[in-house]
Amino acid sequence: MSPGDLKPVRRQSEVFLQKRLSDGLFIGDFITMFKTILLAMAISAILPGISRNAMAMPLDLDQFQWKNRLLFLFAPNRNHPLFEPLHKSLAAQKTEAADRDLVVFEILESGPSSMNTNYLDPQAGQKLRDKFDVQRGRFAVILVGKDGGIKLNRRDPTQLADIFALIDAMPMRQDEMRQKKRLGESDPAAPNKSGDLE
After folding, report:
1. What is the DSSP string of 4-25?
2. Cβ atoms of 164 and 86 closer than 8 Å
3. In terms of DSSP bridges, do strands 114-115 and 140-144 run parallel, antiparallel, or are they unpaired?
4. Residue 102: closest CA among 126, 78, 67
5. How far lies 169's CA from each of 118, 144, 149, in Å?
6. pLDDT tens per residue across span 107-150
């Protein structure tokens, strides 16, 4: 094919583009394509940050009253020496935490804060710090009972077994365990005959 043979093809392309530009369709197509690209870029930027259940959510603690106990873990980051062991213990004992109707909040300064498996809005994390008077850079463990009262407020090393023991000693929890026993439900947090947790 000689260069002369390409002239009619180039001319046809130019005419086609001029026609599309003159009737505005090309610009409309371009804008639609540009919007699609921007949307795809936005989604791809968001997706790496959503490895759990949902996007960041706002928070209303009143929704939990009389239904759940709330455990708040405040730390500068995930690697904090007082935060990390509690986080690992909770991950290993999800069934026991759920049996106690425990909702776990991890409020971090560096990295996303969460409520169980849902990320929290960054502003919600700061509001919780303010509500419980936890200064930035500090570690804290706060347990709120189903009645909305603070049952534990510690700034030092805390074992999950101690938190569970505190919950199990609460009158409301004692009632829950008796009710489960009456209904014949097994309590995964109750000691078995050997005294070990099941």
Report:
1. HHHHHHHHHHHHHHHHHHHTTH
2. no
3. unpaired
4. 67
5. 29, 14, 15
6. 999 989 999 989 988 889 999 999 999 999 999 999 999 999 99
Asked whether the predicted pLDDT for residue 96 surpasses 70, the reply is yes
Q: H/E element holding 154?
A: strand 150-154
Strand-pair category, 102-108 with 69-75? parallel
Report the C-alpha gap between 21 and 33 in whole angstroms.
15
**Which token pair is 13?**
């392309």
Q: C-alpha 159: how far from its chain's center?
A: 23
Banded pLDDT at 63 (limits 50, 70, 90): very high
Predicted local distance difference test score (pLDDT) of residue 197: 42
Q: To 5 degrees, how large is the angle CA 89–CA 131–CA 93? A: 15
As a dihedral over the C-alpha atoms of residue 85, residue 90, residue 96, residue 101, rounded to 10 degrees, the angle is 130
